[in-house]
Write a structure and sequence with these properties.
homodimer; mainly alpha; two-stranded antiparallel ribbon; 7 helices; 5% strand; DNA-binding
DNA sequence: GACGCGGTACTCGGATAACCGATGTCCGAGTGTCGCCGG
DNA sequence: CCGGCGACACTCGGACATCGGTTATCCGAGTACCGCGTC
């Protein structure tokens, strides 16, 4: 099991945009250069965030991406689901009903699937409890300022 | 993010072996046929469980796999880790230290990575809390008997 | 009749292909800005 | 001097290659059982 690398990129981009809250949008090129990741593929990830309603994009000169709502209202789970999709990691194929179990009556859901689902819910709850604002608060101000300077934005 | 299909197979195989606890081992062919999955690939998964110390294999006629310890001592997490590997789903690449953050001093661990790690720990805790014996207890006896009959084992 | 031995059938185990999704790249559509031209 | 217009540069957005990993398969090594020959 491996989470897409785009999740890390998306989270860091959202963190950067949270620092610049309310200012002019940031284009893909700037974000990609600041993390040294391929711009075209990062753009693909940011598109997914737009479709999920987390970011707002604007075209043309001076365009780019900005947060669609305040950082307090964006949870880590929102970002992860936007990139990875809503489907659970464990997908019960109901192999218990094949072969030996064929024709049997299974009124209850598979106990194994239920346990896995329960674990995933715990994982989601933990991610949903953390908002982007919490991450901002936990990050030293020096990192904020360095990124602002690097993007050519004047300090507050 | 998608969990390997082998996890479901491995869990169901362990569940079957838990029903037959203390009896003769079951070969890959029987297990594969009972779930209608490719035998050769299932064997690969069972090998991983052997390496993890969950199953014990025996070669030759009448050989096969059996549990290495009592079902109470086997957690779902043990099985999942045996198949998926011990590495976490989210792997922090420290992209914050590249580009804009290059040369900076980051004494603390990345807040994003910490949050993701925390969520994964919650997931693992939930899986570790469920043992194979719990799954056995939650499964109707009819399924036990149907599988025993299908494998050609006399009822208890 | 009992023991030892060789052959056979069956099983695990690891090395080897095929397929699929994530990763990476490219080009077109759309938009805001700037400069130029006419009034 | 001021307003309108055209061209341009920049940005997003989706369509098209490439690569790694999971999925699937095969064949060799090892082992227990069975039958035969010998003592």
């Amino acid at each position: 099991m491996r989470m897409s690398e785009g999740v890390e990129w998306a989270l860091h981009c959202c963190l950067t945009l949270a620092w610049l809250e309310g200012e002019a949008p940031v284009p893909t090129n700037k974000l990609a250069a600041s993390f040294e990741v391929p711009a075209a593929y990062l753009n693909k990830c940011l598109q997914a965030l737009v479709r999920a309603g987390i970011l707002i994009s604007s075209a043309g000169i001076g365009g780019g991406f900005r947060l669609a709502r305040r950082p307090e209202k964006i949870s880590l789970l929102d970002v992860v689901v936007a990139i990875e999709g809503p489907e659970p990691a464990f997908r019960c194929m109901e192999i218990r009903q094949r072969g030996a179990g064929a024709g049997g009556t299974f009124r209850r859901t598979c106990s194994i699937a239920a346990a896995m689902r329960r674990a995933e819910r715990a994982w989601q709850s933990e991610l949903a409890a953390q908002s982007l604002a919490d991450i901002v608060a936990a990050t030293p101000a020096a990192a904020h300022n360095r990124m602002r300077c690097w993007l050519g934005r004047p300090g507050k």
